[in-house]
Amino acid sequence: MNDFYTRRQFAGAAAAGLLVGTRALTSSPRAHAADGDAPRRRTLRVAHLTDVHVQPERDAPAGFAKALRHVQSLADPPEMIINGGDAIMDGLEVGAARLDEQWKLWQSVLKEECSLPVQHVIGNHDVWGWNKKRSGTTSDEPGWGKQRTLDELGLDARYRSFDAGGWHFVVLDSIFPDDENAYIARIDEQQWDWLAGDLKASPADVPIGIVSHIPILSVATVEFEPYFVEKPGLRRSISHTDQWRFVELFRRHANIKLCLSGHLHLLERIDYAGITYICTGAVSGNWWKGNLLHVDEGYGLVDFYDDGSFEHQYVPYGWEVNES
Predict the structure, then answer these.
(1) Which CATH architecture has domain 41-316?
(2) Of 27, 125, 190, 254, whose CB is crowded by the most CB atoms within 10 A?
């Protein structure tokens, strides 16, 4: 997200299907087995760390390290971490030297503090140079755009799927160039074709989780309405502009249970048409300036079960703001 929250001083409004808080525990509709049914079995625990925004300022590397240590020191730790995107503070508007500095910090903390496997998602701030005026780039630089991001995150492709814990996970690339706002939230036609094929090839009895950086559906975007009046192009970057296509496609696949995202730095849950959409706060809170609309710096902890149910908890890790 762009840093246009900081002028907001009022608390977030609650709406139907929306949870804004620091410790909300949410679960899927089938979270508890009915009387007489065989007890469900947890098959996977995942920590969803999103919007870390590593930078040298405000002691952000120490905050990232503390979050990783908190995750791995849980009495019941996860088997996997999902990095939900925006690993670095910003690549869209910076030159090569600043970009290098941020990625070196990310790699250093991850190498020193993380012993768990990590699945990565591309965030808008991970992309290099799309704002050519501010970044001083020409687009001819090696790694310009998403290639540097793929290299740093060790990814062969922008989007992909994988299986874990008896679930099928789909990782999307939500970020595409936009003349007015540097990026727009959508997926491209190549990705649509791939997604439709991947979902069709998945067995109907295997539950599916979708992971994107930008929310596919969101109610929390109501928080930004004053800024949409001031700059209408921002609306294209807050949540997916092609959400109706997702809704239509998802109707054909009843085994899609959960869509997980970040980007908004807010905690949100929507239950719609049999699918739960969760936006999981931010490790950096309000870009390492404190909590945002009462959502503390934290991460999501998601338990996946063999019956296609799940439970989600938002876990603050106790970060204190450092002004330096």
Answers:
(1) 4-Layer Sandwich (3.60)
(2) 125
